[in-house]
Design brief:
binds calcium ion, single chain, 17 helices, about 550 residues, alpha/beta, about 30% helix, eight-stranded parallel β-sheet, binds 1-O-alpha-D-glucopyranosyl-D-fructose, five-stranded antiparallel β-sheet, 22 strands
Length: about 550
Amino acid sequence: MKRTWWKEAVIYQIYPRSFMDSNGDGIGDLKGITSRLDYLKYLGIDVIWLSPVYQSPNDDNGYDISDYQAIMEEFGTMEDFDEMLDAAHKRGIRIVMDLVVNHTSDEHRWFMESRSGKDNPYRDYYIWREGKDAETPPNNWGSCFGGSAWQYDETTAMYYLHLFSKKQPDLNWDNPDVRKKVFDMMTWWCDKGIDGFRMDVISLISKTKEMPDGKINGFYGDYGPYCVHGPNVHRYLQEMNEKVLSKYDIMTVGETPGVTPGLAKQYAGEDTHELNMVFQFEHVDTAGKYGKWTDEKMPLKKLKDIMSRWQTELYGEAWNSLFWDNHDQPRAVSRFGDDRPQYRDAAAKMLATCLHMMQGTPYVYQGEELGMTNYPFQSPADFRDIESINAYREWCESGKAAHEDFWPCMLFISRDNARTPVQWDDSKNAGFTSGTPWIPVNPNYTEINAKAETADPDSVFHYYKKLIALRKQNPIIVYGKYEPLLKDSEELFVYTRILGGEKLFVACNFTDKEASLSLPEEFIGSDRLISNVENDYSRREIILKPYEAFALLKK
Ligand code: TEU
Ligand code: CA
């Protein structure tokens, strides 16, 4: 297995709108990020993944881009960007940009040209089809954010495809001019000195020519078989690699909904010349009675099966990312752990141990290092996220689901849980802004905040700092071979890692009860690398406390 810097790195995701506001308008911005770089340096991360900062009408908080080479006004200027990049580099921190090129905003110049007439040179930049008849879209596909995936456009009396909101028309990657424009834009950013790309829904860029109705799934037909891992996706990524990526020392991670370990070996294989690593979503998939909306925790056995399969199947062949949450997912401690006050601290550290001792590049989503929790939303009017707002309308206002049944699912799953402001201190608005935050601050900021946690050596923050440092000191954490133990346990997540003559033993209690474990003979008397409570690990029989986690290293 090749050793590379991006396999050894720990990445921190910033959702700029909610990270730090520098000018009191209630919206996080680039100067705000620059002002907090020392905090990130202290935490010890190597790379920042910056969610989109480009010009955007913000239908989907920046994932709808109207100019790829301009900065969103609310976030600052290109000078602010350059300053931030430079300040990060001075601290040895790299910056990876979000590349959103499955679609643009409908306010992007390309789309405004495209919709203006059938003969416009940009017409074929997007995916246009005739309706089945005047009132019926070309097929039954539904968009990810509700409604049909097709929008009728009066000017030319045709429909355009949008797998996300109708303000996010899909680009036509089969058009070589589109690819050239995208590659040129990427080159422009690379020449500016950025350090890589996180590629938004990159597994969706190639669509089949035929676009038949899909199997009904909820309200609409499923576009999956025709748009996910489409016919030319690997060819286009190889072309991108050849024309852009291979020319720079950068890292790439593909957001690849629907990816399996088999496909990951192609997208992110050691020698396939596509991407460095992927995000897979099996452990956060929640297909239930209301589509993705559920209020049920994934059973531990299932979670372990998924995580272990990815660890084992990619070993030596492809590289994976490790994450519990991001800006599209609820808060990790609320979802996989336990956010009740008496358990939150241990559960957050336990989840961190479990993930950071695995193979792959770990991602820390802003606030995760503080053990930030889901938000106590009171009513549907509290939501800002287009997906949450539309879903409530589609399920409840239509009468397909009862409010009482759907509401707990929104509380558990809504993306807005991750989007409340980072809690910096216990002053007004958690120190995020001096104005009115665009989305409310979680009221638990008086307890959970960066100021308190950086001052407390036993905090979740310092635990993350330690895990990040351990990864730098112990190649076994990066390169060791993974082996699952106690696969059938419904309480414990246990595994080992092996590299050369060293062996690592990791055990995590995922429950609020004590759990007993017989330590394998060979680990009795090993060094304790880290643990989230005090316990005696020199004995064979160990009783783990609720949410206890520990790692032992045998040299
Ligand atoms: O997300 C794509 C994706 O597959 C989902 O996680 C999605 O956001 C959603 O939760 C579907 O139920 C990416 C971005 O990360 C997301 O923020 C954007 O909204 C989306 O693409 C469109 O650009
Ligand atoms: Ca601001």
